[in-house]
Amino acid sequence: MTPLASAWLENDQLAPGVIVVGLGGNLDGPTAVQARFDSALASLASLWGPPIVSSSLVTKPVGPVQDQPDFLNCVAAF
After folding, report:
1. CA dist., res. 74 & res. 57, Å (int)
2. Are strands 20-25 and 71-77 parallel, antiparallel or unpaired?
3. Where are the beta strands (DSSP E) in the chain?
4. Distance between CA 74 and CA 26 in Å, rounded?
5. Nearest to 53 by CA among 69, 37, 65, 64
6. What local confidence, expressed as pLDDT, does residue 15 receive?
7. What is the pLDDT of residues 23-37, one digit of tens each?
């Protein structure tokens, strides 16, 4: 864990005031999805400061509509 990440924890729980945002998408391919993530994170960083961002994870669709592209997902904490 990075020093910045550990500064957001108190007793292994998120400290008050930490905002966690989940991002995911599967439209127009992974490059376009990552570009949208980058844009969204830049906009949020202008409000809340620099985030800690997880690595991206590719997941298969679940549920009744599985004939669609894989999803790209990540999590950011501000």
Report:
1. 6
2. antiparallel
3. 9-10, 13-14, 20-25, 52-53, 57-59, 71-77
4. 12
5. 37
6. 73
7. 999 999 999 999 999
